[in-house]
Amino acid sequence: xxxxxxxxxxxxxxxxxxxxxxxxxxxxxxxxxxxxxxxxxxxxxxxxxxxxxxxxxxxxxxxxxxxxxxxxxxxxxxxxxxxxxxxxxxxxxxxxxxxxxxxxxxxxxxxx
Length: 112
Description:
The protein has helices spanning about 5-15, 45-60, 90-100, 100-105; strands at about 20-25, 35-40, 70, 75-80, 85-90. By secondary structure, it is of the alpha+beta class. The protein has a single domain (about 5-105), classed as Beta Polymerase, domain 2 (2-Layer Sandwich), CATH 3.30.460. The protein has a 5-stranded mixed β-sheet. The radius of gyration is 13 Å and the shape is globular. About 30% of the residues are buried.
């Protein structure tokens, strides 16, 4: 699965699970660690956990690999490393506080 297919799978899964404010940042021009960062807001700790669990499940079912996941214990911000795509599943307050889109100085990308 290439980076674009993986990104689309992640975004579709998050959308199906009612993730809010799904944003995809193409970061391949500014870093070598990943091609895309996807940021999504969950409405509660349970929703954040469900979103992160479902993304990992769908990626594995599609033959992709999950390299790691951090933050599930507190469920305010769960990071999922999928290699070409890094997913940030955040509760609203954490997302506002860290404002990753501004931190990276980028605008959301569209599917290519």
